[in-house]
Amino acid sequence: MTLPDAMNEHLLTQELERHEKRYRTILSSVQDIIFTLDKAQRCTGIYGQWLERYHFAPEDFLGKSVQDIFGEEDSLVHREANEKALQGESVVYEWSIVVDGERRYFQTSLSPLKNEEGFIEEVVGVSRDITDLKRVEEFYQKLLDGIPYPASLINRERRILAQNKATEVSAGSKVGDICWFSFHGTDTLSASQKLEFEKSGVLPSGARCLYCKGDEALERQEAIVEEVELKGRILETGWVPLGSDIYLHYSIDITKYKEVERELRKERDLAQKYLDTADVIFLILNPQAEVTLLNRKGAEILGYAQEEIVGKNWFDACVPTRVQEELKNTFARLVAGENETVGYIENPVVTRSGEERLIAWHNALLRDDEGRIVAVLSAGIDITKSRKMEEELRYLNFHDKLTGVYNRNFLEKEIERLDTATQLPISIVMVDVNGLKLVNDTYGHERGDELLRSAAQVLKASCREQDLIARFGGDEFVILLPETSPEEAQEVCQRIRSKAKGVFVEEVPLSLALGLATKERGEESLTEVLRRAEDEMYRQKLAETRSSRSAIVDALLKTLEAKSYETQLHTQRVQKVGLAIAERIRLPDTEVNRLKLAIMLHDIGKITLPEEILKKPGPLLPEEWELMKRHPEYGYRIVRATPEFVHVAEEVWSHHEWWDGSGYPRGLKKEEIPLLARIIALADAYEAMRYGRPYKKAMSQEEIIAELKRSAGTQFDPQLVEILLLLLQLEENSSDRL
User: Fold this and answer.
1) Among 67, 229, 254, 518, which is least packed, fewest CB within 10 Å?
2) How far apart are CA 244 and CA 512, in angstroms?
3) Rounded CA gap, 229 and 249, in Å?
4) H-helix or E-strand containing 452?
């Protein structure tokens, strides 16, 4: 070897020694014991602060076998572990040794070390002192064993770290098990998870306990306690965090306690049920008038929670001010023993919202063993509704519900009462509301009722306080005017006529027929006077009927013109065409007059339809068209309600029927359709074709003729179409246009 080689080798040796010294220093500074064993299980190296802590030196172990260190008997566990490591396994095991008179516990991990050729020559081991951990485990185990119900320590992975005997007996679990799997088995697994577990024997990673609150308790770092019903038992279950990763889990079977509690609650509820389920207020007041008990019904009526009233002075809190003093004095005499007759009393109470309720009280005195009055028990029934109903029934017994005036029953009793000489002269006015049936049929009974109410308001506004107004029949009222001469009664009638002017329901003016009669002699009965007033009213009604009905119909036609395209000019044009056809077929004068009236009224039923349908600029929707098809029927009902127009009702009803039977509303065909209705249908259609509509332009003469020929025999009477075509031909040579 040359000098440079020798120097290099020396330097290399020094470097290796320096590194070895450094590694030994590092290894000696660790808390655990680090050691190496050769194939003969002799110690070839040992490091760690543990040696110094327990006054050992490396020489106490180096070169010695396991038997030399631990003895023949105690070395068995070490030898078995070392043999496994020398065969290539990684081994973890626990062992103990007495050091300085104290037993210390260790956990050792062994790993095989291979040489460059891959053969195992040594074993390296790390031993950790787990004595303190063992003592903590023993402490927790003693703690768990002292708990008489199932309890265990569990980590985040749901592994049982420790458990007491009660847990083992109830769940059949052991340390290291997954807690919920021991408790519940596969009950909490889905069908697919159960199948996976049966095939592999390994629990699916997503499997969890449905009931466990362990994670939540660890996150919140506070105990969670719940009642869980499991397999027919009721358990009080708790999760108590013991650090960030471990929690105490316990379960107490409280089924029996719950059963006892249920029975006690049942008995208590039976006692409470009478108080709370009956429609009765139960109230107990002490001698100071403070509420010591108020049941649920009482609180409900008063609008308070029970605890808001208990302890309060009853009279100050719940009795109207106007009767407080009177009731306080009555109560004071009662508790003082000055008034033993408590019996029955009615008085108002005031609710939280300020509403007053009328209560009927039945009272009883409560005494102690020595006979002293200690409280007053009152059972109260809310009679507000029943008393109000009694008043309403009493009111309805003598009043008309619709108009608010008196009814016929009351009128007849008053006629008997007032039929004395002291009331003379006494006048009676009979009033009839004109056009009620027409309004009912046109606008419906709701508007008819409004007409009657308007009439009643006019009568009440026109009469004096001492006058009696009653509804006598459907559209009739009677006014009794005691000590009223014919002249004074006429003034009342004049006021009625004056106030009725300008009163309208929808577009219909209020029209009243009045009949007046006066009793001035004692021998004449008021019943006879009433009959005379009725006769007078009918005479006036006959005289005014035609004009009043005409006014109503005129109002309806004006309304129809305002809300639709049915203008007066349109009516005149249709009449001109219709009358030209009537003249050509030599229709009698009476029928011509009927035709003119029917044309004027043929679309009056449209007044009942919404304006948005009547003035819609485009085609109607199916539901709108169905409404439109009802207007002939509505018109029929309106016309039927007016005697002087009833003779054209059939024509109004039928003016949209088609010759081939495909029209509406009844599907009449050919001669089943009244002749005048056929004329109206043709004249109305011609007018629409010639003059157009806002939503449809007018047609030329050629187009009209073509359309009439096409519709003859389907929509229109073919003979009438021939006549109209002839009239159109004659029109070309005349200045008078249809």
Assistant:
1) 229
2) 94
3) 16
4) helix 445-462
Sign of CA dihedral 4, 9, 14, 18: positive
Tokens of 508: 């219909």
Q: What is the DSSP secondary-structure string of 197-217? A: HHHHSS--TT---SS--HHHH
Give DSSP secondary structure letters for 400-435: -TTTSSB-HHHHHHHHHHH-SGGG-SEEEEEEEETT
CATH number of 134-253: 3.30.450.20
Residue of 67, 99, 60, 63 lying closest to 82 (CA atoms): 67
Burial of 107-139, coded b for 16+ CB within 10 Å and e otherwise, reads: bbbbebeeeeeeeeebbbbbbbbbeeebeebee
In this structure, what token pair is assigned to residue 636? Answer: 């029929």
Cis peptide before 617 (omega within 30 of 0): no
Q: Which one-letter DSSP state was computed for residue 641?
A: T
Q: What are the residues facing 401 on neighbouring strands?
A: none
Q: What is the Cα–Cα distance from 635 to 608, expressed in whole angstroms?
A: 9
Question: What CATH number does domain 402-545 carry, 3.60.15.10, 3.30.70.270, 3.40.50.2000, 3.40.1170.60?
Answer: 3.30.70.270
User: CA-CA distance, 673 to 278, in Å (whole number)?
Assistant: 69
CATH of domain 268-387: 3.30.450.20
CATH number of 564-731: 1.10.3210.10
User: Cα–Cα distance between 53 and 43 in angstroms, integer?
Assistant: 20
* Segment (H or E) for 125: strand 120-129
* pLDDT score recorded for residue 174: 83
> Hunting for tokens 């229709």 — which residue is that?
587
Q: What is the pLDDT of residue 474?
A: 87
Mean pLDDT by 10 residues, the chain (738 residues): 54 55 56 86 86 82 86 84 89 85 87 85 87 78 83 84 85 80 73 76 71 86 88 85 88 84 73 67 90 88 90 93 90 80 81 91 86 87 85 81 91 86 88 84 84 94 91 92 91 92 82 91 86 88 63 71 73 90 90 89 85 82 89 88 81 94 94 94 92 82 92 94 90 67
User: Tokens in use for 129?
Assistant: 């002192």
Would you list the domain boundaries of the chain?
31-129, 134-253, 268-387, 402-545, 564-731
